[in-house]
Design brief:
The complex is a heterodimer. Chain A is built from 16 helices and nine strands. Chain A is of the alpha/beta class. Chain A folds into two domains: about 85-395, Rossmann fold, CATH 3.40.50.970; about 405-435, no CATH class. In chain B, the strands form four sheets. Chain B has a seven-stranded mixed sheet, with helices on both faces. A five-stranded mixed sheet of chain B has the order 11-13-12-15-16, with helices on both faces. In chain B, strands 1-2 form a two-stranded antiparallel sheet. Classes of the chains: A alpha/beta, B alpha/beta. Chains A and B meet through strand 2, helix 8 and helix 9 of A and helix 6, helix 7, helix 8 and helix 13 of B. Chain A: This is Pyruvate dehydrogenase E1 component subunit alpha.
C-alpha cells in the first residue's frame, strides 16, 4: 500500500500533509494579519473571477498529490505483472463495467429524445470510475445507497441492464415494476437501497443500513461484516443531514463509506461559490474519521482507496469520508441545456476520460490487447441493444397494479363499507375498487 | 413472601381482588425466576407488579385478615397509559430481538433492562436518526423511533414520508419498512405555539403510512403492539396529558399477545340521537359531553377513532345511518383536518341519512397561544362539544358570534 494512504487511515491528522495549497499564494499578506492558519489559507477561494483557473490549479495540485503516490509505488519496482495494481481479469472486469455504464447512459439519452423515456433522467457519463472503483469491490450482501443519478450504481451492483432499462421505460418488467422510475432504483436481491430524489436523503438511510450490520453483529450475534457505501455529490456536503450522519457514524463506528462524487457542480451552482470551505475531505477529520481525496477520473486510484476504506469498515474500525474528484460530461439532467459550464473545463476533463485512461493502462502494460477490449465493447453494445428491445417489448403495468404495494400488509387500506377489509374485495386486484 | 410485596400490600396500594388478574399478568410477564416491580407511577391504584408466579400463588393463599384490603377499587386492574405503553414496548422488545428503540431521552427503565445497544440515546438530530431508523428497517430490523414531541418530527418529515411511507411502493414491494414513529402529539399545557400542533391530519393524508391515535390504556397497549408487529411504517400519536391517566384493563389486555386491529374504530358509548367522533384526548371530553347531553335527553354515540389512517369509514357511516347526525371533534387545526375528511366521507356515503349538517369542532385556527386562558379557548372544551351536539339536534340556544 502506498505510504500516503496507510498513514491517512492510521490517523486523521496526518492527512493534513496533503497540503493542496503549497503552490497557491494566499490573498491576505500573512505578515500583516494573523499567521497563516488553514483558515486563512482557504480565503483565496473567494476570488470568483479566477474560479476556473483556480479550480483547475487547485485540483491539479490535488491530482499531483494522489498521482504521486501511485507513481511512487510503480517506480519502486520494474513493471512486472505482479507489481501492477490489477490482474488481467480484474482489468477486463473494470473495463467492461465502465463501458456498460457509458454505453447505457448514452442509450438513455437517445431513448429520451425519442420519447421512450420521460420525466427526470440524470446521466452519469464521466463518473464511471467512481462507481466501478467502489462497487466492484463489494460483495452481494453489501449495500449501496445512491441519489437520483443511480443508473450506473445499479448496473455496477449487478442489477441486469434490461431491468434498469425497463424501469426507465416505465414497464412492468422493470426492477421496480415501473413504479419507481429513474430516480428510485431499488433492488433487494442486489442490496441497492435506492435511488433518492432529495440530496442528503440517502445518507441517513445508508447510515441505518450500516447500523444494521453492527446491530446484527453485536445484538443478534450473527456473523455480519456487511458494509454500506453511500454515494452523493458535492452539493450534498452543505446539507445538514450529511453532517448529522458523519457525527453518528463516527460516534458509533458504523461500517460505512461516505463517497463524495465531487463533480464541481450542483445543477447550475458551482461548488466553489456555494461552499465556505470547498475542501470536502477535511470535513471527515473534524468528525473523527479519516478524510481522503482521490482522483475520481482514474479507476485504479479509486480502487486502491476503496480497498482500504472498505477494509477499514469491515474490520470494524469505523467510517471513512472519500472525496472523489470527478466530472459529469453531460448536463445535470437531460432537461438541462448545460450552458453554464466553461468549455475549457469540460475539455480538460474530457481529456481525462476514465475509460480511455484504463484502456491505455491495460494496453501499455500488456494486460489486454486491443482486440480483447474491442470484443468487450461489442458485447456491451449487444447487451444494451437487447435491453432496449426487451424494454420496448415489455408490457406497461396493468391497472390493478396502481393500488398494489402501498402497504406490505394490504389490510392497510382499511375496512370497506361491507365490513370486510378492502384488499379482500375482488375489484381491488382489478384496479376498479373505490378506495 | 417477599418483603417488597408485603410492604406494598400493607400500604393499601393493592386490592386483594386484584390478585387474579395479577396472576395472569405475572404469567405473561415473568422472565425466569426474576422478581421486579415497575414503580414508575405515583398513582395509588396503579402499581403493576411483575412477580414470579410462585410468589403470587402464595400471596393468594394468605388469609385475608393478614392483608389490608381495599374494596373501593374495581375488579379490574388499573394501569396508566404510560405503563401500558412501557409494558407494550417491554414485551415486544423481549419477544423480538430485532426491535430496538432510538430517540432522545429514552425511558431509563428500558435502557437499564435492554442496554445501550437496543435502547439508543441519540444526539439531537431528528432527520439523521429518523433516516437511520428507515435504513435499518430497509435491512430487516424493526426500529421504534421516538420523537420528544411530534413537533420535532417536522425536522424528520422527509424521512417519514419520502423514505419510509413511499418506499414499499417505489420498490414495488421489495423493500418494506417495519418502522414505528412514536411520541406525544397535540397540545400539552402551556408549552406555546411550537410545541402544540396536532399532526394527525398531515400524516393521515399520506398514502403508505398508518396513523394511530390511542386514547385509553387498552388502546395504547393494543395499538402499540399492533404497530410494532406491523410490516409498514406507523405514526403513533400519543398525548402528553393522557400519560398519567389510569384506565381499568381486563386480563385479556394484559396478555402479551394482545393487539387491537389497525383500521377499526371503537364505539365507546352507544347512543341513538347523534354520533360524536373523536380521537386521543378528545374522546374523554366527548364522553363527558355525552354524560351531560344524556341528562338533557340527547343520547350520544361516541366513537373512538383509534386509527386515523386507515379511517374506519364503515363504522362511522353505520353509526350516522343510525343516528342521522354527526359531530366530529379534534384538537388540531380545522382546515383540511380529520373532521373535514370524516364529513366528506359521510356526505359521499350516507348523504340521504343526514338530518342535519355535519358539525365540525376543531382547535382554533391560530397558532397555540401561551396564556392559560387563551390556550383553553384555542382547544375544544366539553361545552363546545355539548353545544355542537345540540345544534346538530336542532336544540341549540342561539348565542353571539364565536370563533
Amino acid at each position: 500500500m502506498p505510504t500516503m494512504y496507510s498513514s491517512a487511515f492510521a490517523s486523521p491528522k496526518i492527512v493534513q500533509h496533503l497540503n493542496l495549497r503549497s503552490n497557491e499564494k494566499p490573498l491576505f499578506d500573512p505578515s500583516k494579519s494573523a499567521p497563516p492558519t488553514s483558515f486563512f489559507g482557504s480565503t483565496h477561494e473567494f476570488c470568483l473571477s479566477k474560479t476556473t483557473t483556480l479550480s483547475s490549479q487547485h485540483r491539479r495540485s490535488a491530482v499531483v498529490a494522489a498521482a504521486e503516490a501511485v507513481k511512487l509505488r510503480k517506480s519502486n519496482s520494474s513493471a512486472s505483472p505482479s507489481n501492477l495494481l490489477i490482474t488481467k481479469e480484474e482489468g477486463l472486469e473494470l473495463y467492461e463495467d465502465m463501458v456498460l455504464g457509458r454505453v447505457f447512459e448514452d442509450m438513455c439519452a437517445q431513448m429520451y429524445y425519442r420519447g421512450k423515456m420521460f420525466g427526470f433522467v440524470h446521466l452519469y457519463n464521466g463518473q464511471e470510475a467512481v462507481s466501478t472503483g467502489f462497487i466492484k469491490l463489494l460483495k452481494k450482501e453489501d449495500s449501496v445507497v445512491s441519489t437520483y443519478r443511480d443508473h450506473v450504481h445499479a448496473l455496477s451492483k449487478g442489477v441486469p441492464a434490461r431491468s434498469v432499462m425497463s424501469e426507465l421505460f416505465g414497464k412492468a418488467t422493470g426492477c421496480c415494476r415501473g413504479q419507481g422510475g429513474s430516480m428510485h432504483m431499488f433492488d433487494k436481491e442486489h442490496n441497492l437501497l435506492g435511488g433518492f430524489a432529495f440530496i442528503g436523503e440517502g445518507i441517513p438511510v445508508a447510515t441505518g443500513a450500516a447500523f444494521t450490520s453492527k446491530y446484527r453483529r453485536e445484538v443478534l450475534n450473527e456473523n455480519c461484516d456487511d458494509v454500506t457505501v453511500a454515494f452523493f455529490g458535492d452539493g450534498t456536503c452543505n446539507n445538514g443531514q450529511f453532517y448529522e450522519c458523519l457525527n453518528m457514524a463516527a460516534l458509533w463506528k458504523l461500517p460505512i463509506i461516505f463517497v463524495v462524487e465531487n463533480n464541481l457542480w450542483a445543477i447550475g451552482m458551482s461548488h466553489l461559490r456555494a461552499t465556505s470551505d470547498p475542501v470536502i475531505w477535511k470535513k471527515g477529520p473534524a468528525f473523527g474519521m479519516p478524510g481522503v481525496h482521490v482522483d475520481g477520473m482514474d479507476v485504479l486510484k479509486v480502487r486502491e482507496v476503496a480497498k482500504e476504506a472498505i477494509g477499514r469498515a469491515r474490520r470494524g474500525e469505523g467510517p471513512t469520508l472519500v472525496e472523489c474528484e470527478t466530472y459529469r460530461f453531460r448536463g445535470h439532467s437531460l432537461a438541462d441545456p448545460d450552458e453554464l459550464r466553461d468549455p475549457g473545463e469540460k475539455a480538460h476533463y474530457s481529456s481525462r476520460d476514465p475509460i480511455i485512461a484504463l484502456k491505455k493502462y491495460l494496453t501499455e502494460n500488456n494486460l489486454a490487447s486491443e482486440a480483447d477490449l474491442k470484443a468487450i465493447e461489442k458485447k456491451i453494445d449487444e447487451v444494451v441493444e437487447e435491453a432496449v428491445e426487451f424494454a420496448d417489448g415489455s408490457p406497461t403495468p396493468p391497472r390493478s397494479q396502481l393500488l398494489e404495494n402501498v402497504f406490505a400488509d394490504p389490510k392497510g387500506f382499511g375496512i370497506g363499507p361491507d365490513g370486510k377489509y378492502r384488499c379482500e374485495d375482488p375489484k381491488f386486484t382489478e384496479g376498479t375498487a373505490q378506495v | 413472601m417477599s418483603s417488597l410485596v408485603r410492604q406494598i400490600l400493607r400500604s393499601g396500594r393493592l386490592p386483594v381482588s386484584g390478585l387474579a388478574p395479577l396472576q395472569q399478568a405475572a404469567r405473561a410477564y415473568s422472565s425466569a425466576g426474576k422478581e421486579f416491580a415497575a414503580l414508575n407511577s405515583m398513582h395509588a391504584s396503579t402499581v403493576v407488579i411483575w412477580l414470579d408466579p410462585s410468589v403470587l400463588n402464595s400471596l393468594a393463599s394468605t388469609p385475608q385478615s393478614k392483608i389490608s384490603s381495599d374494596d373501593s377499587l374495581s375488579q379490574f386492574l388499573q394501569i396508566t397509559v404510560r405503563e401500558a405503553l412501557n409494558s407494550a414496548l417491554d414485551e415486544e422488545m423481549a419477544a423480538d430481538p430485532r426491535v430496538f428503540l432510538m430517540g432522545e431521552e429514552i425511558s431509563k427503565g428500558l435502557l437499564d433492562k435492554y442496554g445501550p445497544e437496543r435502547v439508543i440515546d441519540t444526539p439531537i438530530t431528528e432527520a439523521g436518526f429518523a433516516g437511520i431508523g428507515v435504513g435499518a428497517a430497509y435491512k430487516g430490523l424493526r426500529p421504534i423511533i421516538e420523537f420528544m414531541t411530534f413537533n420535532f418530527s417536522m425536522q424528520a418529515i422527509d424521512h417519514i414520508i419520502n423514505s419510509a411511507a413511499k418506499s414499499n411502493y417505489m420498490s414495488a414491494g421489495q423493500i418494506s419498512v417495519p418502522i414505528v414513529f412514536r411520541g406525544p402529539n397535540g397540545a400539552a399545557a402551556g408549552v406555546g405555539a411550537q410545541h402544540s400542533q396536532c399532526y394527525a391530519a398531515w400524516y393521515a393524508a399520506c398514502p403508505g403510512l398508518k396513523v394511530l391515535c390511542p386514547y385509553s390504556s387498552e388502546d395504547a397497549r393494543g395499538l402499540l403492539k399492533a404497530a410494532i408487529r406491523d410490516p409498514d411504517p406507523v405514526v403513533f400519536l400519543e398525548n402528553e396529558l393522557l400519560y398519567g391517566l389510569s384506565f381499568p384493563v381486563s386480563d385479556e389486555v394484559l396478555d402479551s399477545n394482545f393487539t387491537v386491529p389497525i383500521g377499526k374504530a371503537k364505539v365507546e358509548r352507544q347512543g341513538k340521537d347523534v354520533t360524536i367522533t373523536a380521537f386521543s384526548k378528545m374522546v374523554g371530553f366527548a364522553l363527558e359531553a355525552a354524560e351531560i347531553l344524556a341528562k338533557e335527553g340527547i343520547s350520544a354515540e361516541v366513537i373512538n377513532l383509534r386509527s386515523i389512517r386507515p379511517l374506519d369509514r364503515a363504522t362511522i357511516n353505520e353509526s350516522v345511518r343510525k343516528t342521522n347526525r354527526l359531530v366530529t371533534v379534534e384538537e388540531g387545526f380545522p382546515q383540511h383536518g380529520v373532521g373535514a375528511e370524516i364529513c366528506a366521507s359521510v356526505v359521499e356515503d350516507s348523504f340521504g341519512y343526514l338530518d342535519a349538517p355535519v358539525e365540525r369542532i376543531a382547535g382554533a385556527d391560530v397558532p397555540m397561544p401561551y396564556a392559560a386562558n387563551l390556550e383553553r379557548m384555542a382547544v375544544p372544551q366539553v361545552e363546545d362539544i355539548v353545544r355542537a351536539a345540540k345544534r346538530a339536534c336542532y336544540r341549540s340556544v342561539p348565542m353571539a358570534a364565536t370563533a
